[in-house]
Amino acid sequence: MDLDFIRDSYQKMSDDELIRIATTDASGLTPQAQEIIKEEVAKRKLDTNILKGVEAQNKSYSIEEIDKYCNLVQTLSCPICKTNSEKLNATMTSEVVSAIVFSTKNKKIKVGCPSCLDKANNSALTKSVLLGWWGIPWGIFWTIKAINDNLKSKRTNHIDTPNDYLRGFTVSKIGQLETYKDDKTKLQQIIATD
User: How far is CA 89 from CA 98, 165, 174, in A?
Assistant: First the structure.
């Protein structure tokens, strides 16, 4: 590994690019690469919480530790309806759209309040039931799978504890959540991804 090349690459990045790498794409970086990021953050006088994001992406977590990050998310306002009357959770929506010999499938993780998650699953179900069957040969099979996926996901929308979809979302965003855990505005932006 050429450390000079890595150092040069980080130096050429804008602040926004460096922050994005450090908070979202630092998983698996070698200790030397992490050290180079630390040097670059210090040199640019960027927020040192960014370094916590790098560290967070490169350690193992127990389910209890993941649930602490989930609790950060669960107390935010729903990114869909903007209310905060219920604890947030996550769901997976699965949609299939077909047109004779052409079928597409799309799965997304959405974070929101239980009511909004139900609406997202219902919308994906309706779209798949109306538009998914018509593709040969995969439309029928993918539509059945999408219906099953949405019904299964919907069953966990109303539980008070973090469900597996929220845990998965949290792990995928752990660097950002650690970096911005004291900044509710940034946290709201993180969960608003579609």
Answer: 30, 8, 16
Q: For residue 99, which of 130, 122, 123 has the smallest C-alpha distance?
A: 130
Could you say which DSSP state residue 14 is in?
-
| Cα(153)–Cα(129) distance, integer angstroms | 16
Query: Given the structure tokens 């996901």, which residue do they identify?
Result: 153
Beta-carbon contacts of 17 under 8 Å, excluding residues fewer than 6 positions away, are none
User: What is the identity of the amino acid at 110?
Assistant: K
**Strand 89-99 with 102-112, pairing:** antiparallel
Write the secondary structure of 123-141 as one string of H (helix), E (strand) and C (coil). Answer: HHHHHHHHHCCCECCHHHH
Convert the pLDDT of each residue in 19-37 to its tens digit.
Answer: 999 999 999 999 999 999 9
Closest residue by Cα to residue 47 from 25, 78, 16, 93 = 16
Q: How far apart are CA 65 and CA 83, in angstroms?
A: 26
Question: What span, in angstroms and rounded, lies between the C-alpha atoms of 181 and 49?
Answer: 9
pTM for the full predicted model: 0.88
